[in-house]
Amino acid sequence: MASVCTLAWVHGMVQGVGFRYSTQHEAQKLGLTGYARNMDDGSVEVLACGEAEQVEQLVDWLKAGGPRSARVDKVLTEPHQPDREWTNFGIRY
């Protein structure tokens, strides 16, 4: 199975509602590596690397709205070639 990476930007009410932590939990359940971090424009950036099917499952979870406390308006994604190897799924600041 090929490993892929996808960068996603999640827009809506996604900061201050535990979004990064819920995303980290979901990504770890799926066996993914990468990170979630808050952006200055109020969005959350998510880098997910792993098996294509699991990455797609995380993107679907993000599009479905993430945690109940969040409100997702849109999710933009693009394939990504990371400049380093991720060993876990972390929260970046």
Automatic annotation (TrEMBL):
Family: Belongs to the acylphosphatase family.
Boundaries of every Acylphosphatase-like domain copy: 5-93
Membrane-spanning segments: none
MF-aspect GO terms: acylphosphatase activity
Catalytic residues as annotated in Swiss-Prot or TrEMBL: R20, N38
EC number: 3.6.1.7
Keywords, comma-separated and alphabetical: Hydrolase
Domain of life of the source: Bacteria
InterPro entries for the chain: Acylphosphatase (IPR020456), Acylphosphatase-like_dom (IPR001792), Acylphosphatase-like_dom_sf (IPR036046), Acylphosphatase_bac (IPR028627), Acylphosphatase_CS (IPR017968)
Substrates-to-products reaction catalysed: an acyl phosphate + H2O = a carboxylate + phosphate + H(+)
HAMAP family assigned to the protein according to its UniProt record, in alphabetical order: Acylphosphatase_entero
The protein's name in its UniProt record: Acylphosphatase
Pfam families registered for this protein in UniProt: Acylphosphatase (PF00708)
NCBIfam families (alphabetical): PRK14426.1
